[in-house]
Amino acid sequence: MRLLIAIFVPFLLFFTIGRPLAGIICLILQLTLIGWIPAALWAVYALSQYNTDQKISGLQGD
Predict the structure, then answer these.
(1) What is the spatial distance between Cα 39 and Cα 28, in angstroms, rounded to a whole number?
(2) How far apart are CA 49 and CA 58, in angstroms?
(3) How many C-alpha atoms does 24 have within 13 Å on its Cβ side?
(4) What does the alpha-carbon distance between residue 9 and residue 30 come to, in Å, rounded to a whole number?
(5) Cα–Cα dist 42/39, whole Å
(6) How far is 55 from 9, CA to CA, in rounded Å?
(7) What are the φ/ψ torsions at residue 39 (nearest 5 degrees)?
(8) What secondary structure does DSSP assign to 4-61, as a single string?
(9) Would you state the pLDDT for residue 62?
């Protein structure tokens, strides 16, 4: 579900993973049609990093 959010509404993904400042910056980038693609790529990358961090955190028992 988050992957679809990352592609279609990139700025919203950052709010769901707890990075509101990045979400605001992404929204500004996303407001231009040319900036939509980089914003979506950035959101997908941030989502993959978030998932990796969650897996590492789970292994450490935090």
Answers:
(1) 9
(2) 14
(3) 2
(4) 9
(5) 5
(6) 24
(7) -65, -40
(8) HHHHHSHHHHHHHTT-HHHHHHHHHHHTSTTTHHHHHHHHHHHHHHHHHHHHHHHHHT
(9) 60
Tell me the residue type at 38.
P
In one-letter notation, the amino acid at residue 49 is Q
The model's pTM: 0.84
Q: How many CA atoms lie within 13 A of 4 on its CB side?
A: 1
4-62 pLDDT, tens digit per residue, is 999 999 999 999 999 999 999 999 998 887 888 999 999 999 999 999 999 998 888 76
Counting every residue written for the chain, the total comes to 62
Look up tokens 């769901």; give the residue.
16
